[in-house]
């Protein structure tokens, strides 16, 4: 019942805060964000540290349960061996959990600043190993300060040039974004990375331009 109630609340909050409305005549689901950036920031500030507390209680419970299982092992030798394994694994787990709090609280800088300074020092010592990180495949996206784009243009006479529009690559700002999923537009996707570095890092791009000049249909 508690789980069903939680899902029900999540659904109600989603409908309310994202203004979901079903238009039966047009058979469309309309949505509009019903909260401000300030309200979202205040909500993050309210829940981030309590979530850390909930996670700490959950981890503590798991460690205590594991310790109890060690005490239930028969035989002094095997009990000592189980306790040694528990101590090593518990120490490693607590350490990983502690340093993971730093990237977890990146989303709310005030909460990040309230963490114990020792946790920040621990994270700084192992950051180069990338042991922990914030959630997301591409958490830090390019384009915050302006996103570079590779532009391909074609001409029949060498004087008037026309931009070659791609189906999924950003181009005409007046055009609506194309629906991608579940298709993976590989060329358009690679052009994003080609714009982030020198041409030597994307040797395939020179081959693409050569095939365009040759008029290869593929």
From TrEMBL:
InterPro entries: LMF (IPR009613), LMF1/2_C (IPR057433). Pfam families: LMF1_C. The chain crosses the membrane at residues 47-68, 80-102. Residues 131-218 form the Lipase maturation factor 1/2 C-terminal domain. The keyword Glycoprotein applies. It comes from the Eukaryota. One of its GO terms (cellular component) is endoplasmic reticulum membrane. Keywords: Glycoprotein, Membrane, Transmembrane, Transmembrane helix. GO terms for biological process: protein maturation. PANTHER family: LIPASE MATURATION FACTOR, LIPASE MATURATION FACTOR 2. This is Lipase maturation factor 2. It comes from Rhodinocichla rosea. The gene is Lmf2.
